[in-house]
Amino acid sequence: MLFKQQALLRQKLFVLGSLAIGSLLYLVARVGSLDRLQPLCPIDGRFGSRGQDEIPLRALQFKRGLLHEFRKGNATKEQIRLHNLVQQLPKAIIIGVRKGGTRALLEMLNLHPAVVKASQEIHFFDNDENYAKGIEWYRKKMPFSYPHQITIEKSPAYFITEEVPERIYKMNSSIKLLIIVREPTTRAISDYTQVLEGKERKNKTYYKFEKLAIDPNTCEVNTKYKAVRTSIYTKHLERWLKYFPIEQFHIVDGDRLITEPLPELQLVEKFLNLPPRISQYNLYFNATRGFYCLRFNIVFNKCLAGSKGRIHPEVDTSVITKLRKFFHPFNQKFYQITGRTFNWP
């Protein structure tokens, strides 16, 4: 009888010990994951004027869910006041270039806890009707953010619209401007591909790229074709330089952002005076889609829309050669002005 009681007691102790060890291991793993999700260190940089307090990184990361509710209009004025949230004019704008990777750049920068993005293209400065509504209308289109965060919007039409540089200068003469570019011929074909897809959805016919890009009368490059004009980067940049010094621009390599995004994002962090927070952990290659996707934390991942990375139609090689030869002198001048050289043919 005594022997059976001792055996039963040993069995109970073994079960309790196993449970205790299992619980301890779970807590260790849980704490580790939480530390990765919400580091305790404060952000070591300021984005406002001197003397303002810094916001801990934990609080900034909390914004993901909280600010989403405010964007949906589910917040009361009291809740907004309680969390010290504001709608700020952007401190940086991605002004272009269309089909250069503006959406990818905006989404990737939004990985940074001190960045808040305007989800939609607002088209304030390039649309006369919107611009006439005034700067307060524009500000109210911005997302809620903490005072120390940087609000960024993107509207690629800004880069090629004549009135925009002066209008942005009147709003903020010291604003930081981001331009993401790709190899000009590839960008022009990508531009054409997006328009072609839109035509096909509406069961409309469209000219082949070669017929649009080459003037049939002269057999030279058709500079009246918008996709070609947009790729003459230096012509548009020179107009911007009448209002802003080159130091207020940062050129992002859109081709490299596709294949090797982290170094490009780190350069943007430095340009915006942000502490380095985006790491390789935040970016993972999705072999099915052929692009990098975003990892905000251990539970929230995001890939760009399926419309990104459209397959380009085949283009006559002689037309590609002619376009590259046409763009070459403009590219050389662009390198000279920006101080950044690309391996464009």
Automatic annotation (TrEMBL):
Limits of the Sulfotransferase domain: 90-334
GO MF: [heparan sulfate]-glucosamine 3-sulfotransferase activity
InterPro entries: NST/OST (IPR037359), P-loop_NTPase (IPR027417), Sulfotransferase_dom (IPR000863)
Superkingdom, natural source: Eukaryota
Transmembrane stretches, start-end: 12-29
Reaction(s) the record says it catalyses: alpha-D-glucosaminyl-[heparan sulfate](n) + 3'-phosphoadenylyl sulfate = 3-sulfo-alpha-D-glucosaminyl-[heparan sulfate](n) + adenosine 3',5'-bisphosphate + H(+)
Localisation: Golgi apparatus membrane
Keywords (A to Z) from UniProt: Disulfide bond, Glycoprotein, Golgi apparatus, Membrane, Signal-anchor, Transferase, Transmembrane, Transmembrane helix
Membrane topology: Single-pass type II membrane protein
Disulfide bonds: 293-303
Designated name of the protein: Sulfotransferase
Organism classification: Eukaryota, Metazoa, Chordata, Craniata, Vertebrata
